[in-house]
Amino acid sequence: MDSMGRSSVRLLVAVGLLLLRFNWCLAVDGGGVAEVGGAFPMVVSTWPFREAVRAAWEVVSASDGGGSAVDAVVAGCSACEVLRCDGTVGPGGSPDENGETTLDALIMNGATMEIGAVAAMRYVKDGIKAAKLVMDHSLHTLLVGEKATDFAISMGLPGPINLSSPESLEKWANWRQNHCQPNFWKNVAPAGSCGPYRPINLAQALDSVKHEVEGSQGGVCQDWFQSDNLLEPINSHLKFIDRHNHDTISMAVIDKMGHIAVGTSTNGATFKIPGRVGDGPIPGSSSYGDDEVGACGASGDGDIMMRFLPCYQVVESMRRGMEPQDAARDAISRIARKYPDFVGAVFAVNRKGVHAGACHGWTFQYSVMNSSMHDVEVITVYP
């Protein structure tokens, strides 16, 4: 072969390699996925919230080019709010100590890293839409309480609306009849069975009771003072957390262009202290997403999990090269080392569409749908 022929071969090989590289990049970035057998678009959600996933899928997979990841997240979380998924999302569930339902929600655009969130929002039923309005029409990230309500209504959402339901009020009435137990107070003494409460020094209280009993009875078993029998009336707490009293929908969407968005919506912990904000509207705790890396969603004991920002941890671990499964396990194990009794879970999905989950203290399920599936698939993750 002469030199001209060899040059032609080299040129053809170079062009071929360039095209292969281009197709690989398309597969990773999500553009032109259909041509290279990718799995985008994609929707992932905590729990078997199939209808929510289908609502998001309908938007992001539309034949006219598909909606954006952000629009799909809004559609999916809104569906869960309307359906009142597990009684822990949207209006009508999880009454606080006053019997009122309030909403927390967050949305994040992984392309721009913009975030909108509302917390302890009253009288507006559309949590995720309110969060998107904060992102779209303000330079803020988080609005709270009645001022979040005022903002949402001024931007066109219906309200004011009573967010309680007959079911939530009945649940609250039964709880009151049970002397407001269990609850989220600690190291307090109630004026009555349901408060008001005042703070106490637990060590001083135990010492005072010990001296009174010893003085009247001439001695007492030391073990008795260290038991839960004495602590329980002044240090009450919820002993059992599950998806029906302490849950969130957390959703991640990758659209046809490879852009990522995440969102959460919740009505918070049942019988929470009024004003409590959980991990739902906290960026990096309930959810986090970055086009360059991937996304994460979380569910569980938000008061514990928000101390660790597990979803931020998951995404940053994947940024450093961890696979989704290892990143999810690492984030959960970090919490478990400090709080062995905590209950929670995360799912992780990287920008290639590889997904995994990890949990502690309960069996967790998350839902997935992508272009290779005929319908939503539910993945079960064991502790």
From TrEMBL:
The protein's name in its UniProt record: beta-aspartyl-peptidase
The EC number(s) this enzyme carries: 3.4.19.5
GO MF assignments: beta-aspartyl-peptidase activity; N4-(beta-N-acetylglucosaminyl)-L-asparaginase activity
Assembly description: Heterotetramer of two alpha and two beta chains arranged as a dimer of alpha/beta heterodimers.
Keyword Repressor: no
The protein's enzyme class: hydrolase
The UniProt record lists the keyword Hydrolase: yes
Active-site positions on this chain: T248
Annotated signal sequence range: 1-27
Organism this protein belongs to: Setaria italica
Superkingdom of origin organism: Eukaryota
Keywords for the protein's UniProt record, in alphabetical order: Autocatalytic cleavage, Hydrolase, Protease, Signal
Cited InterPro entries: Ntn_hydrolases_N (IPR029055), Peptidase_T2 (IPR000246)
An example Gene Ontology biological process: proteolysis
Residues of the site described as Cleavage: D247, T248
GO cellular component, one term: cytoplasm
Reactions it catalyzes: Cleavage of a beta-linked Asp residue from the N-terminus of a polypeptide
Family: Belongs to the Ntn-hydrolase family.
